[in-house]
Amino acid sequence: MSIKQLPSSTIKLVTSTQTVTSVSSVVKELMENALDAEAVNIDVKLENNGLDRIEVKDDGNGIKRTDVPYVCLPSYTSKICGFADLEKLHSYGFRGEALNAICHVADVTVTTRTSEDELAMVYTINNDGNIVTTKPSHFGKGTLVTVSGLFRNIPVRKSYLNSGRRAAEELKRVDSIVKCLAVIQPSLRVTFCHNKCLLWQKSACTSLRLSLMQVVGHFISSKLEELVLREPELSVDMLVPRRDTENVVAVCLSNVDCMMLYINRRPVRYKKLEKVSLYKPFNTSCLSSS
Ligand SMILES: Nc1ncnc2c1ncn2[C@@H]1O[C@H](COP(=O)(O)OP(=O)(O)OP(=O)(O)O)[C@@H](O)[C@H]1O
Ligand SMILES: [Mg+2]
Asked: pLDDT for 44-69, tens place per residue?
């Protein structure tokens, strides 16, 4: 067979499904956008394990009216201007890819309001990332992204994720992503609901220990000690079980498996460390690992 370029619709689907692999990858991208927009309140809601609907609502900066037409177009970002900016990146996002990829595999609406806007607007976006309808709304400051019918146009992926066991695993993964991204921001308030049931919530607090306590509980949290390393170019903060035998045994018997690792507040997986650790990492298989 001779070499031919694929039709553009196929290219879009193939490349999008590399960024948007699952429900948890959508939640991760939308939560990271909310955090980049300096939100202090984030509400994540799923219906039917996220396959019918995913909603991420934040009270962040919102999107300027003049920027909205570009929000879901490929390679449009407000986070960097060029490659050199990657050296001093402070945001989670930088590729300008996530929302466009989500549009290719789902129906997306964006509701947003900045502090300058009198009224919020709801934008319906088509599969190419262009706005097709606009209407006003009473939404407060911030942004709400809704993603409906994820993978409706990729039946194989949808039925794979829809099977009972996999759907449950995927919900667990979403839970881990929400917790990982929430714990590292103590001042953040988060709620996570599935089919209108509240699965987890985190209130705003003042320290990493109090933040982690909302995942592992008071018993485990009280058994941890803080270790701090400060070098000119490197700063490491750890919360690990105190090393006296009694304490380690108590932690091991507690049935709480939890290892969360971050570089510059970005959740990561480091397999070598996972191997020597007593703890299983959170089930965040869509995070980068090394
Ligand atoms: N919740 C939000 N609040 C405010 N602005 C947002 C929000 N979500 C998206 N945006 C704006 O839309 C742009 C595109 O978002 P998108 O997630 O596609 O790309 P990105 O975050 O820049 O990069 P990446 O693809 O790495 O996530 C962002 O750069 C940001 O300006
Ligand atoms: Mg993003």
From this structure: 999 999 999 999 999 999 999 999 99
How far apart CA 77 and CA 71 sit, in angstroms, is 7
**What are the domain boundaries of the chain?**
8-202, 215-276
List residues near ligand 1 (CB under 6 A).
29, 33-34, 37, 58, 60-63, 71, 77-79, 93-100, 143
What does each C-alpha distance from 37 to 114, 137, 165, 235, 276 come to in angstroms? 11, 20, 35, 25, 36
Pick the CATH number of 8-202 from 3.30.565.10, 1.10.10.350, 3.30.450.40, 3.40.109.10: 3.30.565.10
Instruction: Please tell me whether residue 33 adopts helix, strand or coil conformation.
Output: helix
Contact 235, 229 (CB under 8 A): yes
Give the position, in ligand 1's atom list, of the atom nearest the Cα of 93. Answer: 26
Distances in whole angstroms, Cα of residue 278 to Cα of each of 136, 229, 257, 286: 52, 22, 8, 22
pLDDT digits (tens, 9 = 90+) for 180-211: 999 999 999 999 999 999 999 999 999 999 99
Q: Is the pLDDT of residue 138 over 90?
A: yes
